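Appendix B.2, paired examples.
Example (i):
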Amino acid sequence: MDDMQERALISIVDDDQSSRESLPDLLQLFGFAALPFASAEEFLTSDALTATQCLILDVSMPGMSGPQLQSELARRELKIPIIFITAHNDRELRAELLARGAVECLFKPFSERDLRAALESALRPI
């Protein structure tokens, strides 16, 4: 646990199992701690909620969607930087998510370089 406290915790919320399996491995290679969640509801009830320093969030999920989770975090006044990921190449939605405060919105499949750049932007001190 000490190791996790020293590294930024990135939470991944995605209903896609392959993303939940591959992204934590990649994030750990980048030097981050990572925790995957299958749903927004699972993330909201977890201990990771207040420890998360950046959220990688799928746009479309059963139950609460990514944008709905973004709104819920704002309602709770939890300022967690969000990087959205989506399989739908929707430029209008991307612009809307960024306007609502997301750090980035990456279209699947995205490159390791693009993810790393988004993480650096999300974790940059204000």
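Example (ii):
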Amino acid sequence: MYAHLDHASSRGHAEDDPGLRACVAFRQLAGQAGVCLTLWDTQADADRFASQQAELAALAGQVYEVTDIGEGRAASQAPAYARLMYFDGPRAPEQAAAEDLAGQRRIWPAIRGLSGLVRTYVLRGPDLGCVVITLATSVETLDAIARAVMATELMPGEDPALLPGPDRIEIHHVTGYHMPRLLPSAAPGGPHERTLT
């Protein structure tokens, strides 16, 4: 699955496009900055949408591969808030691998049981830069997630030099949440989807 992330609040998102899996619109707290996330079946779908959007404005969005999806206890609810964490590229392959491993083995187990967590997406760019998007039902949930992550200890083999943390963090209201099709289950070569049972 692929994602298009667009830092412009006025763009459309083609809800009737057969390749569209989900669309989430954000507006930054205490500001008017807007972000639109669309999720697509294939890179071709995402690239086509990106080119259409680029024709509408000078600043085009970026296409990412969705490398991980986590579903929380509130997955059946519509999110109200989101945290976007940006890990700017270019990044070395070993750094990207360390970040992915930390997310899967240390961070996700620490947050997956928190009430109010709707879903997380890990988006990896061509330069191995990354955006981690966390959707939640409240700001309090986002705060609880941050505390839980900060309370974790590095696992054996984790190198802190490869895990400097995000370059910037944004908190947003979720202003639109449209999921016309179910997200795919984990499959070889595809994103991991973790659903709490």
